[in-house]
Design a protein that fits this description.
This protein is of the alpha+beta class. Strands 13, 14, 15, 18, 21, 22, 29, 32 and 33 form a 9-stranded mixed sheet that branches. Strand 30 (about 645-650) and strand 31 form a beta hairpin. Helix 9 crosses helix 14 (about 475-485). The longest helix has about 30 residues, at about 200-230. It is globular and about 80 Å long. The mean pLDDT is about 90.
């Protein structure tokens, strides 16, 4: 029997199959198919079934990571979506927060709302902030609005009423009416998607959920049909943005929760693998073909956030705190209008890809630069299964970058990499030093197809002293899916002043949420002995507008313990606390999990044969170096490899720069001392 996980990325789709008991892992990568991501999934699964001889019935677990929903928002490929809201709130999405992050840059514009204004309709209804009915729902008005949206061609409808987070009765009834008028439409209501206060974020998240829902549903249908065609009967689970797994039915209801699906899996897997090697504090560094994703893990626990921007649209739901920038193997290098060299955020992606791939790419990328400098070679990518044209890479860098800047080709290529590394370093500081952490206390955990290729340089850039490279780093996100737990998050808003007298009501509310969590876990098929729950309070000082999160020991945690935890969290986030200021409780959060049945890692044993398989000239800062090439699977545990060195494997290439050294630990993980 096998457990298989796969992650659909912008350039490659990665697979990892684990055999429970032995811990044997089989990794595979294939090019993504952006027009239909499920096609690449079928290609990979058929590789295991038809070429490796694994019977479809032997897949006892199927885990799935996807960026389909995110890409739909980025590319605005959702469906025509309508909004029904409380009278007077029609323009919440248009007004937004009125923030100006680039005050003096007139070229920066905010994105157009995903709901066009003529499809944002008002109806009479109103609850107050305590959930009491001020104006009853005008059901005839809802029906008329639904008929208007039907005439406008709406395929999805978001229903967002003021104060529905306190009581969703009006939204639920409105949804019933809309489904009567538009039986084929996808309907999302804010009291289910995000029962939290703050109208703009709640409206935005609910609209995105509706906007991507129909196409996500059709993608899932194709995905399930392809599994059936292969003969795989195991019900798949999809990882969502908080690092937990959920069923297809849950994904259909809440597709917005998959916006960080694949990257979240990588962080979960990285935290567990690094812990085995004795590094509880890491910065995860995932570089693919299109983007770089970084996140902070402290004491073995990934950092979480409750909000982020997806293509500049606010999405608010519990998720891992992952910073994503447009820097990857396919990032395009070009000169701007002032003649300065820029790298990213534009990417050549899977198609046409870097110039060296010979698929029609015409602009130089970081992969082309690595080929010119000898860091990659024709036998490197996918163990030689992907042939590359180094001469084409050299020609385009010379023509587009080197000659206009008056540089040699190698200098231009090294400049491309230096800029890419600087961009990646800024992303790492955004999740660490800018939040009060010392990077010297953390190791850099590098994965993704291009992570280990640049990690040594990024460590130097950021002052980190250790780089960790797991086995098969290019498939880490797929492996992380197999190490993830089933999970979901519940939230309840109830703004109140914290006091010893009011604290028992918090415990009672958590008790009700715990029942909701147990019901959800039971529906997901999680046995009681595999369930766990985490209780979190969003709190702030009186007069503040934003909260910090306080993790409680349990629903019956003492009030004084909550206050101590709040002040400690506030000091960590802001550098101070205000001992005599009243504290407000804003949201109660419950994170429920069902423990994974993932197999432990197999004990590492090096393959027979000489680890050194050749050498070649590689360009580093200072010129060309004769550099030994190693086969990773043959590296023994213990002895150091002195840099410069290149370690090759199917899914990635690791660079050890001059003056650095590398060793392999007992779990097969490589550690680079910078």
């Amino acid at each position: 029997m096998y457990r298989i996980g796969f992650d659909v990325g912008g350039t490659f789709t990665d697979f990892t199959a684990l055999e429970p008991g032995s811990g044997k892992a089989i990794h595979f990568k294939t090019s993504s198919t952006p027009h239909d991501p499920s096609q690449a999934i079928e290609t990979g699964l058929r590789h295991y079934v038809e070429e490796l001889g694994i019977a479809p019935s032997d897949f006892e677990f199927v885990g799935h990571g996807t960026t389909v929903a995110t890409n739909m928002v980025i590319e605005r490929r959702g469906v025509p979506t309508g909004l029904i809201t409380t009278r007077g709130a029609r323009d919440v999405l248009e007004i937004g927060r009125q923030t100006r992050p680039h005050l003096y840059d007139y070229s920066v514009t905010k994105p157009e709302p995903l709901v066009e204004r003529y499809m944002a309709l008002e109806v009479t209804e109103r609850l107050n902030a305590d959930g009491e009915v001020l104006h009853a729902l005008d059901e005839a008005g809802v029906r008329a609005a639904a008929e208007t949206l039907r005439g406008a061609g709406a395929q999805a409808v978001a229903i967002c009423f003021l104060h529905a987070y306190r009581d969703g009765r009006h939204e639920r009834r409105a949804a019933e009416i809309v489904r009567e008028v538009l039986p084929d439409a996808y309907v999302s209501i804010s009291s289910e998607v995000l029962p939290e206060f703050r109208e703009f974020e709640r409206f935005s998240t609910t609209v995105i959920n509706a906007y991507v829902g129909p196409r996500m549903d059709r993608y899932l249908e194709r995905f399930l049909q392809r599994l059936a065609d292969i003969g795989i009967e195991s019900a798949p689970r999809t990882i969502h943005s908080n690092g937990g797994l959920m069923s297809v039915d849950t994904v259909r209801s809440f597709p917005v929760r998959t916006c960080l699906s694949g990257p979240a899996a990588g962080v979960v897997g990285a935290a567990k693998v690094a812990g085995v090697s004795g590094f509880p504090n890491i910065v995860t560094y995932d570089v693919g073909g299109t983007s770089t994703d970084v996140s902070l893990v402290e004491a073995g626990r990934p950092a979480f956030t409750t909000s982020r921007l997806v293509a500049d649209y606010p999405v608010r739901c519990p998720m891992l705190d992952i910073n994503v920038i447009g820097a990857g193997g396919g990032s395009i290098a070009a000169l701007d209008d002032a003649g300065a060299l820029k790298v990213g955020p534009r990417s050549a992606g899977a198609y046409p890809g870097p110039v060296a791939y010979g698929q029609g790419g015409t602009e130089p990328t970081t992969t082309d630069a690595n080929l010119v400098l000898g860091r990659l070679d024709s036998d490197t990518l996918l163990s030689g299964r992907m042939q590359v044209d180094k001469a084409a890479a050299r020609e385009v860098i010379e023509r587009r970058i080197a000659k206009p800047l008056g540089l040699g080709v190698e200098e231009a290529a090294l400049g491309i990499l230096r800029i890419a590394v600087a961009n990646m370093g800024r992303a790492i500081r955004a999740v660490s030093t800018e939040k009060g952490h010392r990077l010297q206390d953390f190791a850099l955990f590098a994965y993704g197809g291009a992570g280990p290729l640049h990690a040594a340089a990024v460590a130097v850039e950021t002052g980190m002293k250790t780089v960790i490279v797991p086995a098969q780093p290019g498939t880490m996100c797929a492996r992380g899916i197999l190490l993830s737990d089933v999970g979901f998050d519940f939230v309840r808003t109830g703004v109140s002043t914290a006091s010893a007298a009011s604290w028992p009501a918090i415990g009672a509310a958590f008790g009700q949420m715990r029942q909701e969590g147990n019901d959800w876990l039971a529906n997901e098929g999680v046995a009681e002995d595999r369930r766990s729950m985490q209780y979190v309070v969003d709190a702030r000082y009186d007069g503040q507008n934003h909260e910090v999160q306080v993790v409680l020991d349990g629903p019956d945690a003492a009030y004084d313990a909550f206050l101590d935890g709040f002040r400690a969290a506030h000091r960590q986030e802001y550098g101070y606390d205000i001992e005599n200021r009243a504290v407000e409780i804003v949201n109660l959060r419950l994170s429920v999990k069902g423990a994974s049945a993932a197999a432990p890692d197999a004990e590492y044993t090096a393959q027979d044969g000489d680890a050194v398989i050749g050498s070649r000239q590689v360009y580093f800062d200072g010129g060309w170096y004769e550099t030994a090439i190693y086969e990773r699977a043959r590296l023994p545990v213990g002895p150091y490899v002195e840099g410069p060195a290149i370690i090759q494997e199917m899914s990635s290439t690791t660079i050890v720069e001059p003056g650095q050294r590398l060793r392999v630990d007992g779990s097969g993980t490589m550690l680079i001392e910078v």
